[in-house]
Specification:
The chain has four helices and eight strands; from the N terminus they run αααββββαββββ. The relative contact order is 0.09. Helix content is 26%, strand content 24%. The protein has an eight-stranded antiparallel β-sheet, covered by helices on one side. It folds into two domains: 74 residues, Inhibitor of vertebrate lysozyme, Ivy (3-Layer(aba) Sandwich); 63 residues, Inhibitor of vertebrate lysozyme, Ivy, CATH 3.40.1420.30. About 28% of the residues have low confidence. With 181 residues, the chain is an alpha+beta fold. A hairpin with a 3-residue loop joins strand 6 and strand 7.
């Protein structure tokens, strides 16, 4: 009788674990539920220079890496009070995404130069926006904040918190705008 009860309990445990794991397959119409091992691998890496802070979870499933010294210095210089919650490196192009405790995200090239900054709620630090762009936004959208800036080869794309998207040349010359529908 004891063996029978043990076999029933063991069978239930095996079924529970296999149903929970789903064999690593994705359900129809959705994404696979990560196992405990997957969640542990995806947890944000706390930078050794940062203090304990609420976690900002990286949105993409990419390998975690330590932030290079140049990136840590950039974050400390431009995002006062924010700490690095996690980093991800894209192995195809070497770019690094950095997630901060204040909800900001900074994307860096393989050469550790910022290429996109997103700061929901508080706006991109003014020191990182070219002066001509800052002046244009202040003159034409007094109450708007620049919450995202994307630096391309020879242009800047700026998104304001009012839904307006502005395009500028590399020298800060206004090129045009788009408005979200």
């Amino acid at each position: 009788m004891k063996h029978f009860i043990f076999l029933v309990i063991a069978s239930c445990v095996v079924m529970f674990v296999s149903c929970n794991n789903n064999g690593g397959q994705q359900p129809v119409g959705g994404q696979a539920t990560p196992s405990n091992a997957d969640v542990a691998q995806q947890a944000p890496v706390q930078d050794t220079l940062s203090q304990a802070a609420p976690q900002t979870t990286p949105q993409a499933a990419a390998p975690q890496v330590a932030a290079p010294d140049a990136i840590v210095k950039f974050i400390n210089s431009n995002f006062s009070g924010a700490t690095i919650n996690g980093t991800e490196r894209d192995h195809e192009d070497g770019e690094i995404d950095v997630y901060l405790s204040d909800g900001s995200k900074v994307e860096f090239t393989a050469n550790n130069e910022w290429k996109k900054i997103t700061c929901p709620g508080k706006g991109v630090p003014s020191a990182l926006v070219p002066t001509a762009i800052t002046n244009y936004v202040k003159s034409n959208y007094q109450s708007a904040l620049i919450y995202k800036i994307d630096k391309n080869y020879n242009t800047y794309e700026v998104q304001l918190n009012n839904g307006v998207e502005l395009n500028f040349g590399s020298n800060g010359q206004f090129l045009g705008m788009d408005v979200d529908d």
